[in-house]
Amino acid sequence: MALSSPVDRFRSAADALTPARLLVLLYERLQRDLADAEEAMLGADRYRGHRALLHAQEIVTELDAALDADAWDDAAQMSSIYRFLTGRLIAANVHQDLAAVRDCRAVIDPLVETWREAWQQASAGAIPARATVAERVPLDVTG
Fold first, then answer.
1. Does the predicted model carry a pTM greater than 0.90?
2. What is the C-alpha to C-alpha distance for residues 86 and 126, in angstroms, rounded to an integer?
3. Alpha helices (H) along 2-97
4. 27 near 111, Cβ under 8 Å?
5. What is the residue extent of each domain of the chain?
6. How far apart are CA 141 and CA 13, in angstroms?
7. Residues 6+ positions from 68 with CB-CB distance below 8 Å
8. Cβ distance 88 to 103 under 8 Å?
9. CA 16/CA 119 separation, integer angstroms
């Protein structure tokens, strides 16, 4: 059966996303926002940098809120990382601090690779474990 509208196609694609893939997509978007903010700052485009940093901050806030300490022993440590990132994103935005953006990128870039690798291994069936990230977005790494 063919999907009748763009909305139906979007819903179908969204339904196909696993929580693990969604997490990777969020991290990749966060990475892109940081790159956009850095580029904007270098080009003296304060508004574009501001928008990118605000969006990055929204993603970090949601990632932090989605952590479930009951399901993952390291949730508190990850929350500390997210709080660090939030502080640096605010500093980057308020002071147009390029070093703060680069601090965030230094943290996020390896995390993007780690989560991407975990998702790929889970998709291939190489990770039999289960982990959850809050009730709103359970993260089942088994695929």
1. no
2. 33
3. 6-16, 19-42, 46-66, 75-95
4. yes
5. 19-123
6. 19
7. 75, 132, 133, 134, 135
8. yes
9. 14
Summarised one tens digit per residue, pLDDT across range 101-117 is 999 999 999 999 999 99
Residue 134 neighbours by CB under 8 Å, 6+ apart:
65, 66, 67, 68
Could you tell me the CA-to-CA distances from 125 to 12, 24, 27, 83 in Å, in that order?
23, 17, 22, 32
Cα–Cα dist 142/18, whole Å: 10
Nearest Cα residue to 26 out of 127, 137, 100, 102: 137
At residue 63, does pLDDT exceed 60?
A: yes
The architecture that CATH gives domain 19-123 is Up-down Bundle (1.20)
HEC-encoded secondary structure of 22-35: HHHHHHHHHHHHHH
Place of tokens 């502080």: 87
> Is residue 96 predicted with pLDDT exceeding 70?
yes
